[in-house]
Each structure stands twice: as structure tokens, then as C-alpha cells.
Design brief:
Elements lengths: L1 E2 L5 H21 L3 H15 L7 E4 L5 H7 L5 E5 L2 H11 L5 E5 L2 H6 L6 E7 L8 H11 E12 L3 H5 L14 E6 L11 E6 L2 H10 L2 E7 L5 H4 L11 E8 L2
């Protein structure tokens, strides 16, 4: 695990193309406890009162959160910049007539759409993998109707560095934006030779950019496992590892 400079979006796309099949196995097998016990329930709870008429799943990955959203959405567009992620999602979900799967960056997709096209936007564990948070939030604001919900989850800006044990590294400063390369490991699988990239940003950075593009933060949650799920982890949680938020698009 180390900071890295000069990472391009194409580099990150290639990382996710390489890891996509393994990621699908981790989720489908249930080995990724947090995905099922923390992240999906968090997304479901934060979006429960939203307008599901026209939904966009931003950075949909291999499509498991998309599958949950399909249960309520009249129409859903799921986009991801990894062609392998979209291919795997399509293998499981292409039979749904109200779903469109699109291989694209968020910025390119937004540029090609009429403004205010969606009533609900969801980004599950995506914002901390994008190199330009400003460009992505601007694009989401352009896509979303006034009063629409933008629901997201991210690695917790304060506690994730402690969980991954780089909070005390000489190169880490909480207030800085830092591109970090590390293997994608989960609690039940610690051996992973595929590098992935995430970007540490202080919470204030997220708040400032959301405010810049007229999002009002309606709710923030720091989900913890239930007692039942806590017992599934090799090491019990002492602090939240993820953060979720519901924002409302203003003018």
C-alpha cells in the first residue's frame, strides 16, 4: 500500500477490468460480508423515500446494487467505465426490460443526456475511486432533477485509514487528497494480487463540492454491523468503516 502519482483514468479502468470476475465471485459467494450486511442495506435505507421513476446507478460495478434497485425502479440506467464490469452485469441482468447497461464514464454520459433526466441517483462505493470529484459531482447535478435524491456510500474518510493501517504513515495527512494504490482485500479474503486505486479525501472536501453544485446533505450515516453480522467478521468492528449520505438536489 502506497501513495502514487500520475494515475490516469485509463489505468483505473484497467484495474477494474482485471479484478471484475474476482469481485463478482466475492459478492455472489457472500464472502464480502460488508457488501451484503452494510452497504446494500445502507443504500436501501437512504433511498427508501426517493422517487424511483427514473434511476441512475453510477459506477454500477458488476451489478449487485443495480439488482436491488431494479425491484423498485420504473426505469434504471446503470453505467460503469469498466467494460468487463458491464459485461458481467449484463450476464445476470440483461433480461430486465427496464434496465439499460452502459459502458461509459459519468462525465461522458452526462454530457450526452438532456439535463434533469433522473429522479434518483445512486453511487455505491464509487466517489472515492474517481480522480476528479468535482467533475463527477457536477455531472450528477446535471443529470438529477430538482428535489431528487443523490445517495452514496464511500470508505469513511477518517476511519478507513485507521482500518487499513496507513493513518500513521509518514506520507499520510488527513487534510490532503491522496491517490493510494493497494490490493482490494475483504475480511474473508486477504490474498489479492490485483492492485486497485482509491483516493483519500477529507470529509470537508466532499461537503464543499456537494454544496458547490447545490446539493443539500439531508442525512449522514456511519453504519455498523448488527450483533448477528458482527460475529461473521474475523475481527470485530470498533469503529465504522464506511459512510453513507443522502443529498437533495437544489435549484
Amino acid at each position: 500500500m502506497h501513495p502514487i502519482s500520475g494515475k490516469s483514468e485509463e489505468d483505473i479502468i484497467q484495474e477494474w477490468d482485471r479484478i471484475a470476475r474476482q469481485r463478482a465471485r466475492q459478492i455472489q459467494s457472500g464472502d464480502d460480508i460488508s457488501y451484503h450486511a452494510i452497504l446494500l442495506p445502507c443504500i436501501s435505507d437512504l433511498s427508501s423515500n426517493g422517487n424511483f421513476d427514473s434511476v441512475i446507478d453510477l459506477g454500477c460495478g458488476v451489478g449487485f446494487a443495480t439488482e436491488q434497485l431494479l425491484k423498485r425502479a420504473n426505469r434504471i440506467v446503470a453505467i460503469d467505465f469498466s467494460s468487463e464490469n458491464i459485461k458481467i452485469a449484463g450476464e445476470r441482468l440483461s433480461q430486465h426490460p427496464n434496465l439499460s447497461l452502459i459502458n461509459s464514464s459519468i462525465e461522458q454520459f452526462a454530457d450526452a443526456q438532456p439535463p434533469n433526466s433522473f429522479t434518483l441517483a445512486v453511487a455505491n462505493m464509487m466517489l472515492m475511486t474517481t480522480l476528479s470529484l468535482d467533475n463527477v459531482i457536477y455531472s450528477i447535478a446535471r443529470l438529477l432533477q430538482r428535489g431528487g435524491y443523490f445517495v452514496f456510500t464511500i470508505t469513511h474518510p477518517w476511519f478507513w485509514p485507521q482500518y487499513w493501517k496507513y493513518a500513521d504513515a509518514d506520507w499520510f495527512n488527513y487534510s490532503d487528497e491522496i491517490i493510494i494504490e493497494a490490493p482490494l482485500v475483504i475480511s474473508l479474503q486477504s490474498d489479492n494480487s490485483f492492485p486497485t486505486t482509491h483516493i483519500h479525501r477529507p470529509l470537508q472536501k466532499y461537503v464543499d463540492i456537494l454544496h458547490k453544485y447545490d446539493f443539500v446533505i439531508d442525512k449522514i450515516v456511519e453504519p455498523m454491523p448488527s450483533e448477528e453480522h458482527q460475529s461473521l467478521y474475523p475481527n470485530p468492528w470498533k469503529f465504522p468503516r464506511f459512510l453513507g449520505a443522502r443529498c437533495i438536489k437544489g435549484r
